[in-house]
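Task card 7
Instruction: Convert sequence to structure tokens.
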Amino acid sequence: MRVFLTGASGYVGTAVLDAFARAGHQVTGLVRNSEKASQVASRGGTPLIGDLCVPASYRQAAEGHDAFIHAGFDSARAVECDRLAIETLLAAARAGAPGRAGVLIYTSGIWVLGHTPQPAAEDAPLNSAAIVSFRPAHEQMVLSASGNGLRTIVVRPGIVYGGSRGIVGDMFRNAVNGLIRIIGTGDNHWPTVYDRDLAALYLRLALHADASGVFHANDEGDERVNDIAAAIVGQAPPTPDVRRVGLDEAQAQLGAYALALALDQVVRSPRARALGWAPTLSSIGSNAARLFEEWRSDSAGR
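Output:
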């Protein structure tokens, strides 16, 4: 399978690239510069230097692939850039040879659900956090394009962990530096997913001819932020301090991002599990020692 992947050097994109390359598929990875291109090449991908927000820099190169995975994100121009990328990838997917089945996978996230203290599956109503208020419309762009030989899929990952990047990676780094900050009381639940398990779902979805629609990617560990922090604290001598920051103070510093981190979410992934997807890790807390070693090793390599 020939795969076109945006964000190929990003957190999710790197894991996806690894999974597809290990499985013997050819991956063209869109990156911003030569340094990131070298990273993609070293992992078995074929780098393409371009700008996610400038379709002309990758539109033609994207055509002719079998699968299109949008894992890229430009935080400075998030909404417009994401829309342009979707439109460009859909056009490239439709430009394939007649009768050739293709698939486009769009990376969204569980924050589109808003507060979900009761278990929420893929059919749950959306009540997006402000920081991702654009995502439901973009999800619908993708889903409504399905048909005429093209499968379209929306993946909503939980908070990704593994390695040195992401929200949980930052918590390990903060712990080593002596202070973890928790927004609010910390009694809220975070849906989470191991980066390699998430990538395994992308691979399964790309290869499963009947897979389409929305899929949650969550280990269903139902961990509270306090529990995650306690597990991380236990791996970082000397014992770091834990400070709880009021929501108003956090919002003044971090804006809408703080509100998203304070969401209380319990999420289920029945559609993914129905395809045979089974996460190898089911929580951060019970794997904290392993994850700390991963974090340390990955941090040393950066």
